[in-house]
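All the exercises in this workshop are built on plain-text protein records. A learned vocabulary of local backbone shapes supplies the integers on the structure line. Once this layout is familiar, the rest of the handout is easier to follow. An example says more than a description, so a record of this kind follows:
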Amino acid sequence: MRLNVKKIIGTGIRLTIGIGLAYLLINLTLKHTQTDLWNELLASRWLLLASALIFYGAIIAITIWRWAMLLKVQGIYLRAGDIIRLSMIGNFFNLSLPGAVSGDFLKIAFLSQHAKDKKLKAALTVLLDRVIGLFGLFIVAVVMLLIYMPFLYSLGNTYRPVKIAALTVGTGSVIMALAIALVICGGALMHHPRIGGLIRRGKGRLPDFITSRLERLFEALQMYNRTRGTVFKAVLLSVLVHASLAINMFVIGAAVNENGLRLSDYFLATQVSNAIAGIPVTPAGIGARDATMSMFLIALGAPLEKAGVVPVILTLIILFWGLVGGIVFLFTRISKK
């Protein structure tokens, strides 16, 4: 197999830039908030920190369950151990490139080998899992933005970046609502007189591999259209995931003796910062999430040093579970049957 040297070099450059930018953003966050990370960790409540670490693992378990549900709809059955291992390895690779999607490519590659006759359906489960996950995020984010709209409007020009972030997430929520509607109703589009007719006419004009893939894609979407209950459950699990992330941030805040903010404040800061972290700039949004969350915590009234240490501890927890995925990758093999 020939190696694409240019592609390898380009990937290495992007990875280096992404890691460098993530480090820079975290460093700037700590400096801006005048946070002594080591001293804050030493003064924290270790039992609560351990609880936050374990709780994050439980959140990962919910996302694994969600993906398993979507796989079953397409008739793709993997061993429970394989799904867990593949998901953990995917989490590890999500830390390797900007955008947190490289783990998705790994899942698609494995499923293409496991279900060779269902490659498109397998890829769709990964894509839909990502879309539904984002949809759950935006549902919680929009609710919190609506609740905090008067507060955000009252902020002065000093907090203009906070307002811009809130507006960006609000706009993105509308786009994601349309996307999830397309996923749920996409199968029905195949039977629409105009859409179906357009595809049938295209058979004589477009290459067969394009029209055949379009047909298989709509057929796969139709399966989700017939099992909307599964999609609805997956959306609820996504909402649970992102609500749990906010609760976990509240636990981290309590662990570092931040006692001034309410749970709802953490709900707002967590959803918006996670949405911003989804922009493909740094690996797994590290750095971008920290800077955004720190800005929101400060705007909400948290002391500077607490606003700096809370998001960085979350990053350390994410890195820990990513490392667990790396260990799984090194010492296990995923069966093909």
About this structure: The first helix runs from residue 5 to 32.
